[in-house]
Design brief:
The chain folds into three domains: 223 residues, Spore Coat Polysaccharide Biosynthesis Protein SpsA, Chain A (Alpha-Beta Complex), CATH 3.90.550.50; 92 residues, no CATH class; 269 residues, Spore Coat Polysaccharide Biosynthesis Protein SpsA, Chain A (Alpha-Beta Complex). It contains 19 helices and 29 strands. The longest helix is centred in the middle third of the chain and has 33 residues. The termini are far apart. The chain binds 2-acetamido-2-deoxy-beta-D-glucopyranose (4 copies). One 2-acetamido-2-deoxy-beta-D-glucopyranose (NAG) binds next to loops. One 2-acetamido-2-deoxy-beta-D-glucopyranose binds next to helix 5. It comes from Chrysodeixis includens.
């Protein structure tokens, strides 16, 4: 049965079975053949080319990883250095001591746009004869022929890594700085550039009088061949020597055009006459020869006028284009304007603020007073910049109103409100009272006025890396702050010793040295637990303490302690140290330390964070919820008056101190008078947090209240990572004369100068 069944199945499927057998046979025969062929090819061709994308297996012995060489990456201070970003143009003017007395000042003024990247090179027989001018470089070598090479060598030695283009010109040329910067902005530094006016006698060299533009790569090539160039300088004309040098070093001939841009220079008929004033002058990079100071100014005035006329024409053209384009915008979106960055979607309302600190509020005012102008006042007289700004707005509103409402005889302000919108504008709403021209009676009008933010108020700030080593300096008065100091040390261990190791701590105990044993012991303890941590304790004399010990307000005492601590600590710190001065009751986190590193720039800027002051907990019964209810994280306010936490470089502070007569001023006041920028900043979400009067035994209900506030403090520390400082409000108001508001959306800062 079975065999018959099998036979019948085979008969039915014979084609399939034959096909199957054939397939098996073919596959058995063919596969070995292919392998052999492949192997033969491989042996003939050598090892197959390595595929970059194929994973490579790397054998490593098991066990603990071998100690790799310590690869500590040293990051430079500025992102621009790290990314190889360079300035665009450095201009060098070949000049002489005689010219310094005549036309150089004119040339210096008319090229003010090129500052600070403008250098004058002179041959000074003795450097002492060079007056103290900031941008004059004197060479002691008096051989006139070599002057351009000295200049080129100086530029290459000092600025090769800092600038993309170098412009060399003699002092008998008027330089059209605007056209020059425009030209350079259109050129790519990735190609070699040797640009200028071709000398008539030789088509390979650029005239030095007409200006020579060299790219970084060309200057580098010249620098490498400088010996050859100096040996082969024999022509009486500078441009021939320089041109020969470029030709030899970079194999380039002078070209008046490159990358679609052309270089024009206008030749004047005589040295004493300015050339005919034609609009072509505005398109020329240089005009030469010009030697009289008056002619520099004439040319500058004329060229500036042509540029202004062109700008005005451009504005008209854009206006007309906008006008023509407006009907094509989608309906309801026609009023959508800049700044786009402040909106989530163009044309839609801005997103609601994240917290109450981001809420832009209207501040109402009458003609003399502002109501709730800040967190600290209910009513304050309008003074300073606010007053001036309001006066300007009122004058404009009054003039506009009188033109607009013909029957109005007088326009006066009844009340109003302003709102400061960072990065956009200052907005006013004015309620005006119009007195009728004829007869009595009046009407009320509401007017909205906007003062857009102008470009002049944007302060460019360098991007810096977070790599700087930070020295924390804790100034500790000898009594009354031990608990705070111990808490500070705990925080220092948690934040710095365990996470951010790029810090050092210096505790300076001001006053009776025998009273702070607990703090000394705690510091010693920390040092034992963390080998390699930089922890020091110094002592400073408490000079100038007022006679009855308790007479001084607490804020003043801390400020005095900080000043004395700084004086004692500075000699122990490296000259380029970045210092963060803190009071014992300040809280901070790693993010804050990084902010300090980024916001303090040597020689440019110091940082005065505005700490968040928590409200005093014992003073407000609602915060003593017996059921354990905790106050909100943000019950407090930013204390703009505190000056107890600040960051600066040692060298900057010493320079400021040297220029300061009274040695008894607090550190922030000393720095505020220095020619440095101060960054003041209140960060809502994170960073500096609020100053509350510290949990001190409250006046009346001492023990229980203290315990509660303590508990709360600790709970906050573990839960909120962004908590930063509890600063005690100080008694005297800040004298800083510069406020900078920071906006999240852009990298620009708004600076409000107050008088
Ligand atoms: C050129 O102007 C700058 C800034 O105004 C000034 O510092 C410098 O000393 C001037 N140089 C000369 C040579 O007048
Ligand atoms: C744009 O705003 C002006 C003034 O607020 C208003 O008169 C005008 O109707 C608005 N246009 C559109 C298209 O919304
Ligand atoms: C503005 O308000 C303040 C405070 O209420 C008041 O003293 C002052 O007289 C008012 N000024 C004017 C011009 O009404
Ligand atoms: C510290 O020393 C001063 C004088 O040297 C003394 O009056 C004071 O009692 C000492 N304080 C303590 C806590 O030992």
């Amino acid at each position: 049965m079975l065999s018959r069944y099998v036979v019948s199945q085979v008969k039915h499927n014979s084609y399939f079975l034959v096909g199957l057998a054939l397939g098996l046979w073919v596959s058995l025969v063919v596969v070995p053949l292919e392998e052999e062929a492949g192997a033969a090819c491989a042996s003939a061709l050598g090892p197959p080319p390595r595929d970059d994308y194929e994973p490579q297996r790397e054998e490593r012995p098991l066990g603990p990883a071998p100690r790799t060489q310590a690869r500590t990456l040293q990051r430079p201070r500025y992102y621009s250095t790290e990314l190889g970003m360079r300035g665009s143009l450095l201009t060098g003017v070949l000049s002489s001591e005689e010219a310094l007395k005549s036309q150089i000042a004119a040339l210096n003024h008319t090229t003010a746009r090129l500052h600070p990247a403008l250098k004058f090179f002179i041959t000074a027989s003795a450097m002492s004869s060079v007056p103290g001018l900031a941008n004059v470089v004197g060479f002691t070598d008096t051989r006139e022929m070599l002057k351009p090479f000295h200049a080129l060598k100086y530029l290459a030695d000092n600025y090769l890594e800092e600038y993309d283009f170098f412009f060399l010109v003699s002092d008998t040329a008027f330089v059209n700085a605007r056209r020059l910067t425009e030209l350079v902005s259109q050129l790519s530094v990735s190609e070699d550039i040797y640009m200028g006016t071709v000398a008539e006698d030789d088509s390979h060299y650029c005239l030095l009088e007409g200006g020579v533009l060299l790219s970084n790569s060309v200057l580098r090539a010249i620098h490498n061949e400088l010996d050859w160039c100096v040996r082969n300088s024999y022509s009486p004309h500078h441009h021939e020597n320089v041109g020969r040098c470029v030709l030899h070093a970079a194999h380039l001939a002078c070209s008046p055009a490159a990358q679609g841009e052309s270089y024009a220079a206008v030749r004047a008929s005589g040295t004493d006459e300015p050339p005919a004033l034609t609009p072509a002058l505005a398109d020329a990079v240089t005009v030469f020869p010009v030697t009289k100071a008056a002619n520099f100014y004439t040319l500058h005035a004329y060229v500036s006028r042509v540029h202004l006329q062109r700008d005005a024409a451009e504005v008209r053209r854009l206006r007309a284009a906008l006008w023509r384009g407006a009907p094509r915008h989608p309906p309801h979106y026609r009023n959508a304007t800049w700044p786009a960055g402040l909106r989530a979607d163009p044309g839609l309302a801005p997103p609601p603020p994240d917290s109450r600190f981001d809420h832009l509020r209207w501040i109402s005012f009458n003609a003399t007073h502002a109501f709730f102008p800040d967190d600290h006042h209910e009513v304050a007289p309008l003074t300073g910049a606010n007053r001036e700004a309001l006066d300007l707005v009122l004058a404009a509103a009054r003039a506009w109103g009188l033109r607009r409402w013909a029957d109005a005889g007088d326009v006066r302000l009844l009340e109003g409100a302003w709102r400061w919108e960072p990065a956009a504008a200052l907005r006013y709403r004015l309620l005006l009272r119009l007195a009728a021209r004829a007869g009595g009676g009046h009407t009320l009008r509401l007017l909205e006025v906007v003062r857009p933010l102008g470009a002049a108020r944007l302060v460019p700030v360098r991007y810096v890396t977070e790599s700087a080593r930070l020295s924390l300096l804790l100034a500790l008065p000898s009594s009354g702050h031990d608990d705070d100091a111990l808490a500070f040390l705990q925080r220092y261990e948690a934040v710095c010793l365990n996470q951010d190791k790029n810090t050092a701590l210096l505790v300076v105990i001001v006053g009776a040295a025998n009273e702070t044993q607990a703090v000394r012991a705690a510091v010693g303890d920390l040092a034992r637990r963390h080998a390699g941590a930089q922890l020091d304790v110094l002592d400073a004399e408490d000079e100038g303490a007022p006679a009855p010990p308790g007479a001084e307000p607490e804020g003043a005492r801390l400020l005095r302690a900080q000043r004395l601590a700084l004086a004692a600590a500075l000699p122990h710190l490296p000259r380029d140290a970045l210092l963060l001065l803190l009071a014992p009751h300040v809280e901070f986190n790693q993010d804050f330390l990084n902010r300090v590193r980024m916001n303090t720039i040597a020689g440019e800027q110091w940082y005065l964070p505005s700490g968040f002051a928590r409200f005093s907990l014992y003073a407000h019964p609602r915060f003593l919820a017996p059921g354990g209810g905790k106050p909100q994280v943000n019950t407090g306010r930013f204390n703009l008056h505190t000056r107890l936490a600040l960051a600066f470089y040692r060298a900057d502070y010493e320079a400021a101190l040297a220029a300061w007569r009274d040695g008894r001023a607090p550190p922030a006041d000393v720095l505020a008078r220095a020619p440095l920028r101060v960054l003041r900043r209140a960060r809502a979400g994170a960073g500096a947090r609020a100053p509350a009067p510290p949990p001190r035994p409250p006046p009346a209900r001492a023990p229980s209240a203290t315990r509660t506030s303590r508990r709360w403090t600790r709970a906050r520390d573990t839960r909120s990572r962004s908590c930063c400082s509890r600063l005690r409000p100080t008694s005297s108001p800040s004298k800083t004369c510069f406020n900078i508001f920071y906006t999240q959306y852009s990298v620009v800062l708004f600076a409000l100068l107050c008088k």
